[in-house]
Amino acid sequence: MNTPTHPLQQALDEQGLFVLDGALATELERRGADLKDPLWSAKLLIEQPDLIRQVHLDYFVAGADVSTTASYQATFEAFARRGLGHDEAADLMRRSVQLACEARDAFWSDPKHRAGRRKPLVAASVGPYGAMLADGSEYRGYPGVSRAALAAFHRPRLQVLAHSGADLLACETLPCLAEALAITDLLPEFPGVQAWISFSCRDGEHNSQGEPLADCVAALDPVPQVAAVGVNCTAPEFVPSLVERARARTSKPIVVYPNSGEHYDAVGKVWQGEGQAHDFAAQAMRWHNRGARLIGGCCRTGPDDIRALRQAALACGAIGPR
Predict the structure, then answer these.
(1) Whose CB has fewer CB within 10 Å in the chain, the N or C terminal residue?
(2) pLDDT attached to residue 6
(3) Does 233 show up as a binding residue in the annotation?
């Protein structure tokens, strides 16, 4: 019996570049949401779900082939600190996927949006252990936390999100290989589920904990349920080198969705410094030329960046039959 082709692999088989969405939390803030809270964007799953749905829809209209859900900071531990029980927390995680699916279906129901497009996918965001700590450690790492402890942290949320109706998992902003391996240890518990794994990186060679990215992607290369590997929430200046290093050590598609290049102050919960995303689409085409297949934006990017990316990709023929 032939194994069915996963939706992401089918899309990559049919088009050269797969466009991801941009930031969710910082886009919600731009629209007036107050996210200075340990729950970050997951706070709005409780307070303003309609706003989350609208941002997803706007990214689809802008040209995203996939939208990533508002579950990055949605953990049982974080919701428990807010006084929510296990069942309530699980319902909110499922709601994050439902909102993205509703936006996708609304987009796809409009005939004017369907011309030249594939039906978009929904990726359930699986944020790192550091996101639950809400102290910025996903940009530093946690060498004292064991792989077994990280697996124990991730298992309950994966049990919800793997059966939530999402097309795949986006395991993102991981600062270290141990966390990536903890997640891949769990994936066989969910047959048929695929995930992309993306690391936060401190420079053009190392993840946030200081391990060579090349070694990390090589370690993940044999894992069949890992659909793509790469980097996210990393300064754009580091992406070309990181893509080349990753491409040399894996046969899997490379995913990149950097932030704007500003620095996040986890204490003050504000972004500082100068952004590097003013020519985002042009940079993205250079990343594609170096081998990236899935490209979008992370913190401080928005629908305008994704629209420009898709237009640039169409102009140079990056989107279309391979």
Answers:
(1) N
(2) 84
(3) yes
Is 216 a known ligand-binding residue?
no
Burial 95-106 (b: 16+ CB within 10 A, else e): bbbbbbbbbbeb
Q: What is the pTM of this model?
A: 0.93
Distances (CA, A) of 126 to 96, 97, 197: 11, 12, 10
What's the pLDDT tens digit per position in 140-177? 999 999 999 999 999 999 999 999 999 999 999 999 99
Residue the block writes with tokens 């797969």: 18
* Spatial CA neighbour of 231 closest among 255, 205, 247, 195: 255
Which residues lie closer than 8 Å to 192 by C-beta, 6 or more apart?
A: none
Strand 292-295 with 270-272, pairing: unpaired
Domain boundaries, the chain: 7-315
With a pLDDT cut of 70, the percent of the chain lying above it is: 92
Is 299 part of any known ligand binding site?
yes
Amino acid identity at 277: A
CATH architecture of 7-315: Alpha-Beta Barrel (3.20)
How many Å apart are CA 294 and CA 156, to the nearest integer?
28
The radius of gyration of the chain's CA atoms, rounded to the nearest angstrom, is: 18
DSSP state of 138: G
Residues 198 and 231 sit within 8 Å (Cβ to Cβ): yes
What's residue 271's pLDDT? 47
User: What are the start-end ranges of the E strands in the chain?
Assistant: 18-19, 66-68, 121-126, 168-174, 195-199, 226-232, 254-257, 263-265, 270-272, 292-295
CA distances (Å), origin 50, targets 74, 89, 320: 17, 18, 33
